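Service request form, structural biology core

Requester: graduate student, group of Dr. S.
Request type: structure prediction, single chain
Budget code: on file
Notes: please return the result as structure tokens.

Sequence provided:
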Amino acid sequence: MLDSHTIPTQQRPTHRLWLIGAFASLIGFGQNALLVSLPILVTTTDIDLGTWSILIAIGSVLFLPSSPYWGKQSDKSGPKRVVSIGLLGLTVTFVGFAVIIHTLEQHWISTTVSILLLAALRIVYGMTVSGLVPASQHWAIQTVGKENRLSAITSVSAALSVGRIGGPLLSVALVKLNPLLPFAFVGCAALFLMLLCLVQSSIPTTSSPKSIKSRALLGSIKSYITIGLCLCAAVGVLHYSLTPLLQSIPELTPEQWADWVGYLLTTSAVATLLTQLFVVKKKLFSIDQMLILGAGLTLIGYGLFLLSNTGAYLIAIIILSSGNAVMAPAYTAKAMQHHSENQGQISGLIATGHTIGFGIAGLIMSLSAYLEITPIGFSILLSGLMILLTFRQLKT
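Core staff response, request fulfilled:
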């Protein structure tokens, strides 16, 4: 007689993947809910944009130490617990944001107290939500098996893309009704998904994670982490550069600059999602071919941004986003092949590399102003470095 507990896991991997994807997509929704609401929050509260930027940065910086930690915990105790903690962190953070901002607007608390409370919530966010994506990837791999590792990673990446596409659209609609509604929606959705997560049956691990020091693990996959760091640094520089690039086009008016930033970012998210679904998940290329293809497309995409016209920018963002979409799951899967029993920890280390990359992008933008170098030139250099690292790694 078949074990009744194994039937759902065996027969419904797609259902489980959809649910895991929903967990991860909330990060995209949450990030965009905050960004969309930010202009209104600056005007309706006594908190200026600089302070909001610091508050946002607090949560982002804490991803650096906490992502590898949660990845290791996912390997030890299973991804379900880590995902639940991440969803709880989202619930507390976003519901807390809505409550604090409302009380500030009603003058029930002072601005100083509200800033301190918001900073505390961003600390909670950084220390808990940082484990959501690594653990979701780990859980997805457990669901479909290590032989389908690439498909599992892509499913989570596609879910993040869905969140980044749907997040702005939904947040814009909600913020028109009430500026706090996007926060309330993300918080309530996270609470609902956390309850669904808790009732899911855990997938028993067939082997224990190998005891390996973080330094040794980092040394064995450092090339893949560096590729991910370069990829995110280049993307970050581009995002910071979009407005200056559009300002260089004489036909565009200042009112059209913001519109075109939205067009380009939306096009990027759609191109990323379509590539993930119809190229990566369909396994049209091997992992090694994906690395080479992705590196080449990113270099071409950044190069096209040297042409100052909107048509070239649209083509460039499609090529670039497609390249990133095939490259990111490829180097993640390659890294996991080295230590198949430490996949959560590896996912956490790669996530840390991504965070450092986005931080470096801000530093590059500051340096470019002093060095009088076009920022997009740094993105081209970084994509060239990715090509060199990719070919070097494929030869070993």
